[in-house]
Amino acid sequence: MGPEALFVYGSLQFPEVLFALIDRVPQHEPAAAEGWRVVTLPERVYPGLVPGDATATGHLLTGLSPAEWRTLDAFEDPVYELKRIDLVDGRHGWVYACNPEAEVGSDDWSAEDFEAKHLPGYVIRCAAWRRRYEDQQQVG
């Protein structure tokens, strides 16, 4: 059995991004993880999650199918590793957190800034990535 719930704190919080990648917005509710910080990543518009003296906020996605998990795993940057974390309310979730070797920025990432400046173009890039991914799956 694979991971049961995914804590999202960055671009995957946005319904438009989820639709571009998996054609739907799974069940979700607000969630937070204490002891984690959402930071900028050099030369990227999406963030990373690192241990820190903060509380990361986002959503907990549930009901992802195995195919959706595979798509999200393939989509995520190699800077991330999937790990299980504790949430503030006592639940657990899986999260794409930065691996220890990842280069991260010193600034906090802003979902509002991302939405205002980058979301439309990012959704287009996600849709193009998905077309390439699905084409590769049909060939392979």
Report on this model:
With 140 residues, the chain is an alpha+beta fold. The chain has a single domain (5-139), classed as Hypothetical upf0131 protein ytfp (Roll), CATH 3.10.490.10. It has four helices and five strands. It has helices at 15-22, 66-75, 111-117, 119-139, and strands at residues 5-8, 27-39, 48-62, 80-86, 92-98. Strands 1-3-2 form a three-stranded antiparallel sheet, with no helix packed on it. Strand 2 (27-39) and strand 3 form a beta hairpin. InterPro entries: AIG2-like, AIG2-like_dom, GGCT-like, GGCT-like_sf.
Key features?
140 residues, alpha+beta, Hypothetical upf0131 protein ytfp, 3-stranded antiparallel sheet, two-stranded antiparallel ribbon, 4 helices, GGCT-like_sf, GGCT-like
